[in-house]
Amino acid sequence: NAMFSWQRTAYHFQPEKNWMNDPNGPLYYKGWYHLFYQYNPFSAIWGNITWGHAVSRDLIHWLYLPLAMVPDQWFDIYGVWTGSATFLPDGKIVMLYTGKTNGSVQVQNLAYPANLSDPLLLHWDKYPGNPVMVPPPGIQDDDFRDPTTAWVGPDGKWRVTIGSRFNTTLGLSLVYQTKNFIDYELLDGVLHAVPGTGMWECVDFYPVAINGSLGLDTSAMGPGIKHVLKASLDDTKVDHYAIGTYDPIKDKWTPDNPKMDVGIGLRVDYGRYYASKTFFDPHTQRRILWGWINETDTENADLRKGWASLQTIPRTVLFDNKTGTHLLQWPVKEVESLRLNSTVFKDVLVEAGSIVPLDIGTATQLDIVAEFEIEQLESSTTDEASDCGNGAVERNTFGPFGILVIADDSLSELTPVFFRPVNTSDGSLNTYFCTDEKRSSKANDVFKQVYGGEVPVLEDEKYNMRVLVDHSIVESFAQGGRTVISSRVYPTEAIYGAARLFLFNNATGVNVKATLKIWDLNSAFIRPFPFGETTI
Ligand code: DQQ
Questions:
Q1: Residue among 288, 162, 268 at smallest CA distance from 218
Q2: Mean pLDDT score of the chain
Q3: Residue 461 has pLDDT above 70, yes or no
Q4: DSSP string, 152-209
Q5: What pLDDT was estimated at residue 244?
Q6: CA-83 nearest atom, ligand 1
Q7: Span from the CA of 82 to the centroid of ligand 1 (angstroms)
Q8: What is the DSSP string of 274-300?
Q9: Ligand 1, from 50, 202, 233: best to mutate by most atoms within 8 Å of Cβ?
Q10: What is the reported pTM?
Q11: For 409-458, what is each residue's pLDDT tens digit?
């Protein structure tokens, strides 16, 4: 299908055709990374939800496999919905997933690989006694879904948490205990609840090390460890997280800062992003985060182009012990294997109110690392927009400044990725990291937003960003990954060889010095598994 073919990405995971949503059950097994995903085999819009399946040696080059699970039982006939994998100490794998039953009830089901000696885990058996959990009293039939990876407590019993809500608006996560993954006991109370946040989908719950750069197994707990609780808020379609402490005796989690609780504080990604899920990669000792990037064009456009949605580049997740308040997300290092030639620009002066082209040729597949320093020219006021404002056109004393990606030569289309430092009443600066889609496409049937959030910039730090550009997606990481924005753009002019890259500084009161290293990125091989061929 050649329709809108320039919007297909070159190194992001997407199915060959049709609709995809949440990442499911990511895991590493016998040398292969496995990704399952919510998939409609029949159309480019949501429905008929099955589990698509793909494998990779390096998280970047992917091979599509046959569907892993389809809706063919009474307990999942209206959809094989989101779930997570757990490794047992004896090497077995259990997959818990939500099924929508023939009576439209959301239940939790158990599945396991039919053949553990198959590294591809091609065949999955559904436990014949499914469902293993049904909505408990007080929980609505359609408010009970997306079981997490299980973890084992000090008493040797496994726990799994499942998002829900009570009385429409109290978002919460239930905890079940099990010894055998067949019989489950609902614990009194909840892992955590936050008023006003509504239904929690795709809860994720995992430990992070306070110090060091290694990820932790989901069952890790004790000194030197904090726990992250993430919920995808159904009401706003936004992924929120908070960092806190898990009490494995009471099975309760408490946020470090109640003002930054789940759903009212930090976001995993400030752009178009939802239903994220992490897994522990024992092979490289990393915790790796997947996230679903939905479209912002219309369903009609998706039907015409024949596909919808992407997954982000997998990201490592670590606790940021410099701020003590944020996670750090960073593209897995394997993406650097796609780097081709690079260009360095050192100390480029970008004067207040100017644009500087960066002569790198075609700019559709890039890995950009940029650092900015500011030199103040005029004094500032404190009554300036203290967020991303109306985007890149709204001028403050200190910003916005940054880069213009997926732009054409005449700047008829462009997507600014930028910092906006804002003066506060105590004389310090608060910095916002933003992406402005307002002029990203001449198409008028596209939802164009200004995205962004605050990013801590510490005293000894320059402003820095890493930006991955891939035709119709821009993934941007500020200050080492404290604040992240994924954005879908639909250029009509800035495509193929016409796409360019610029620096810009729309501040009124500062000059900016920019230093960048920019790599062209190769395309990744993402194709059907070559069954029958002798080499891959
Ligand atoms: N997507 C799945 C649900 C989940 C939602 C259905 C989140 O299990 O709650 O496709 O995007």
A1: 288
A2: 96
A3: yes
A4: E-TTS-EEEEEEEEETTTEEEEEEEEESSSSSEEEPSS-SEEETT--PEEEEEEEEEE
A5: 98
A6: 8
A7: 6
A8: EEEEEEEETTTTEEEEEEEE---S-HH
A9: 202
A10: 0.97
A11: 999 999 999 999 998 888 889 999 999 999 999 999 999 999 999 999 99
22 is catalytic: yes
- 218 C-beta closer than 6 A to ligand 1: no
Residues with Cβ within 8 Å of residue 213, at least 6 apart in sequence: 318
Q: How many CB atoms neighbour CB 359 within 10 A?
A: 9
Q: What pLDDT sits at residue 428?
A: 87
ipTM: 0.99
Angle at 132 between CA 129 and CA 138, to 5 degrees: 140
CB 302 within 8 A of CB 44: yes
Name which residue sits closest to atom 6 of ligand 1, judged by CA. Answer: 81
Going along the chain from its start, the domains and CATH numbers come out as 17-331 (2.115.10.20), 340-521 (2.60.120.560)
At 145-180, the pLDDT tens digits run: 999 999 999 999 999 999 999 999 999 999 999 999
Nearest 5°: the CA angle 23, 172, 198 is: 80
Cα of 145 from ligand 1 centre, angstroms: 8
Render the burial of 307-330: b for 16+ CB within 10 Å, e for the rest: bbbbbbbbbbbbbbeeeebbbbbb
Kindly name the residue from 22, 76, 261, 367 that is annotated as catalytic.
22
- Give me the pLDDT at residue 535, please: 66
